[in-house]
Design goal:
Layout: E1 8-12, E2 15-19, E3 33-37, E4 42-45, E5 49-53, E6 56-60, E7 70-75, E8 78-81
Antiparallel strand pairs: 1-2, 2-6, 3-4, 3-7, 5-6, 7-8
Length: 84
């Protein structure tokens, strides 16, 4: 549901911040994010989202994320490559 819309994702050791007008069209219970790690493992985020505004959503991880180990994110099925 994010195709043809722009959502910016920022990854940090404590979670992910999503910004963009398209977020107002997505119900939080329908939002799914998967972190794909460089070693081939995956971390799914099905809960823990906080919508601070229509265009600002945060996900807080239950454990520290080694940002350097994450190769990309998949947001509702759409792959998002991370810049080096």
């Amino acid at each position: 549901m994010l195709s043809d819309t722009e959502v910016e994702a920022t990854l940090s050791p404590i979670g992910i911040t999503l910004t963009g007008e398209a977020l107002g069209m997505i119900r939080m219970e329908d939002l799914k994010i998967e972190l794909q790690l460089k070693d081939g493992t995956k971390m799914s985020t099905l809960t823990g989202f906080i919508q601070l505004h229509n265009d600002l959503v945060k996900w807080i991880s239950s454990k520290t994320i080694r940002v350097e180990d994450v190769s990309n994110l998949v947001i509702n099925g759409q792959k998002v490559n991370l810049e080096e």
